[in-house]
Amino acid sequence: MATPLSAAGAYATIARLANASPLGGEQNANDGSFATMLKNAVGAVEEAGHKSDAQTRTAANGTANMVDVVTAVSETEVAIDAVVAVRDKVIAAYEEIMRMTI
Description:
Blueprint: H1 4-19, H2 34-60, H3 66-99
């Protein structure tokens, strides 16, 4: 089970990845590039994680609706699974390109 410290580290890593530009320059929010799309997706996962943490904290205080907590945690889990699936596909595509002969 994830601890609050590991969750905070994961969110910090996601935030750092979301704010990093692969080209070293500023990214335009509407440029339609893969990097911008990926940055937006990672930002959405980070936001879902923060929402899930907030709901969990209110549940620990006894003031939250458990349906809202479970929904927030499930949304975060689905978002992270989607990011991991995209990452796996990108890695598989890279490995396939590296196997190609010139």
